[in-house]
Amino acid sequence: MKPLSPVDQVFLWLEKRQQPMHVGGLHIFSFPEGAGNKYMTELAEIMRAYTDPQPPFNQKLHFKLGQYYWETDKQFDLEHHFRHEALPKPGRIRELLSHVSAEHSNLMDRERPLWETHLIEGIRGRRFAFYHKAHHCMVDGIAAMRMTLKSYSFDPERSDMPPIWAMKSDKRPRNEVTPGDTIQSIAHFLEGAGKQIATIPTLAREMTKAMAKSRKSDEFVSIFNAPQCVLNQKITGSRRFAAQSYPIERIRAIGKVFKATLNDVVLAVCGSALRNYLISLQELPDRPLIAMVPMSIRKDDSDSGNQVAMILANLGTHLADPTHRLEVIKHSVSEAKQRFKQMSQEEAVNYTALTLAPTGINMLTGLAPKWQAFNVIISNVPGPDKPMYWNGAKLEGLYPVSIPVDRVALNITLLSYVDNLEFGLTACRRTLPSMQRLLDYLESGIKELEIAAGI
Fold it and tell me: Domain extents for the chain?
């Protein structure tokens, strides 16, 4: 058995009925040339033949002495994890997104490996889709993308590819820690504890500096700067998912004019969309919204577990001028990145934990609803820059489906694929009415920056 890291275990502790802690991906394919009327039926049968899952897809949770471990599921049942489904007519993207919204609302069974793959047919235009779903304790965004890249191919002629759960890893298995081995377990604990204690001086110094700067400047972000907002109410377990693609060249052109990174421009576009959405609800706070932006600190080629830190970014939603908003965002992100550059990996993880503590306390207890570290989660994951295929079927769209949490009812996750940025917006269905309007406001946010840039 292999113990879960402390970060991975947090995602299990935070999970409750109204707060499922799994991530997903909606992958839309076009039929390969020559596909006949029985293509989908035959495809499902081929996939069902792969009954021997590879790590981590054959691992289930085991709880012992206050610690979660991964162990091999010796009673693995593929029928539970692989589902073949059809959309109701007329099979538009609207029906597809509605289907994914419903599936993403369901908790996963902790007695089994924490993943599902849904093969979805009946999409207009001779298309089908995969909706992959895995618990966040199993993968983070970067790890999920690496798994996807390994399961697909850049070669349209390749035809020997297994489904994602049957891929053989090209890495040697990691050393496992046996719970019964008392000496090894204690050594493992002491080593981790020593690293954590060593981070305390850096954490104290950086937190003090951040608090001091936030008192001097309204635009600097500390852990208590997020305003109260309609986005930050209690949520239900029901989800609404919306998705849209935007040409990445439009974002790069704006960044080139304003000397901003692609991620800076994305945050400015999201800031504009959220400003207009909240104005439409008559709910725009006077102070700017704060985004929690995950940043990978993964220094290896692993494709499981979580290795992320979080920065807090000022979205400038109090500003009507898109140029001024972008400058505020650039400065806010630069400050946060500079802080993490000076830290070790352990310091970065612990600083993140300290930063998110107010929100974590709320999610676990609900005792301090006014302790709001951030209002929205915005995550940008790099993806492949060339078209990908799976057994001759071309991958047309690659949309992330993520996690809203209690009092943070909206998660905006995007990834790059070939020439597009693929936006996936996941929200609590009850808390955010007409959430799909945000897609129109994202387009408006891009246009207003193009106009400001003279493009």
Answer: 2-166, 201-382+402-453
**Neighbouring residues of 137: CB distance < 8 A, sequence distance ≥ 6:** 4, 8, 9, 11, 12, 21, 68, 114, 306
The reported pLDDT for the residue numbered 173 is 42
Q: Cβ(15)–Cβ(388) under 8 Å?
A: no
Which amino acid, one-letter code, is at 418? V
Same fold? 2-166, 201-382+402-453: yes
CA dihedral 159, 164, 168, 170 (to 10 degrees): 100
Per-residue pLDDT, 305: 46
Residue 397 C-alpha from the chain's centroid: 16
> What is the model's pLDDT at position 350?
63
Is 136 known to be catalytic? yes
Closest CA to 432 of 381, 380, 379, 375: 375
80: left (phi over 0), alpha (psi -120 to 50) or beta: alpha
Regions in the chain scoring below 50 on pLDDT: 172-200, 202-204, 206-207, 211, 214, 298, 300, 302-306
CATH number (3.20.20.150, 3.40.50.2000, 3.30.559.30, 3.40.50.300) of 201-382+402-453 reads: 3.30.559.30
The per-residue pLDDT for 7 is 77
Specify the pLDDT at position 147. 86
**Phi, psi (rounded to 5 degrees) for 21:** -115, 50
SS3 assignment, position 315: coil
Q: Which of 136, 318, 324, 331 is catalytic?
A: 136
Comparing CA positions, the residue from 168, 151, 165 lying closest to residue 50 is 165
Q: How many CB atoms lie within 10 A of CB 85?
A: 14
In angstroms, the Cα distances linking 428 to 45, 225, 270, 327 are 35, 23, 18, 31
Is the CATH number of domain 2-166 3.30.559.10? yes
